[in-house]
């Protein structure tokens, strides 16, 4: 403890200094007042000649900074500088004598300059709520005065002008109160007499008419657009239906072709078979024709040719014999005529000789004609005998020779058909070809009968023609 004794005075001094500092700090804090940004400090008391006072003021105004206030000698109070507003609802009469209720709002505050703050402090310090009623009274009077000099149309069209005039008229009074107007707005005009409503009716009617016209125009345009859209939709649907129909038709055609593929193949195969059978029938007809040629016609022609040759040979022999006899008779007559010339009866003998020669020549000519007729009669008789013996074979041969023409005549109606559809495939083709062949078969009996009658008539005519005629005798 003894070593601390020399430091005791220093410690006491430090304690005393700290106490004094604390006391001074507390006192300074108690006396130093700072103004907020939206308020003003009004310091009254011992302030004469101090900073912040102006000529004629017995108080001090402090804004935006601090100041010492000596307790007991000075008093400090605050004055708010914030905005305030007052609702206006004033009954006015226009220059036209029309009653109108004006509704508006005034936004005001205490001015920021020292004179405004001083005026407001003298009038409203401690009584700031009274500012709203004072401002209302000021603006009510000026608003009635200005509206009384304006018409209802001017008030409606020139609200800004009305607000500006009211602010200008109240500016001096507001300055005396230490107040400034930040904004004056006319919110609404009430018209108890209905003047504004009646004034607006023509315009409302015009606007309604234009609105109806515009609506009708828009409806018409919308209807036209809808009609165009419906037409385009109908066209698109029509095109789609056409395409679908075409696709369906193609599909049906493909299905029909597929369904007919088998019958068509059968018909094609059957057609080939019919063609081959037709070729075979033609070959058989040719064979029958060759057979008829070999077995019937050629032997008959050979026999007729032999008979005709024999008849011609016999005719030639008879003609030669007749000519020889006639020559002999003529020579004998000439000889007799020559011999009789020597006699007295030469004339009679000569006449008889000439008569005998003439008779001989006539007999020779008659014999020649008779031989030729006999030869032709024999040939016709041979053909008639051949026809009588093999009539059916000859008719069959002629039918075979003319069979292509008969089949072509039976199929003639099909030559004028441009397009023919055969149903039931190969069975339909078989029925069609069988019909043609059955028609040809129905023709054959009539043709055979006609050929048989023709042959009979031809034979009879040939037999009559072949009958020999006796030549006249000279």
From TrEMBL:
Residues 30-203 form the Band domain. It holds the Pfam family Band_7. The chain crosses the membrane at residues 6-24. Its main location: membrane. The keyword NADP does not apply. Residues 282-291 have a biased composition (Basic and acidic residues). Residues 206-233 form a coiled coil. SUPFAM superfamilies: Band 7/SPFH domain. Residues 282-307, 454-474 are annotated as: Disordered. The keyword Transmembrane helix applies. It is found in: Membrane. It comes from the Bacteria. Belongs to the band 7/mec-2 family. Flotillin subfamily. This is Membrane protein YqiK.
